[in-house]
Amino acid sequence: MAVQHLADHGIPHTSRGSRAVVVVLAEFAANAISHGRTSGRNFEVRVDLAPDTIRIEVTDTRPDRFPRTPADGGLPELPSPYATSGRGLLLVSATADRWDWSVRDNCTKTVWAEQSLHP
Question: What is the pTM assigned to this prediction?
Answer without folding.
Answer: 0.85
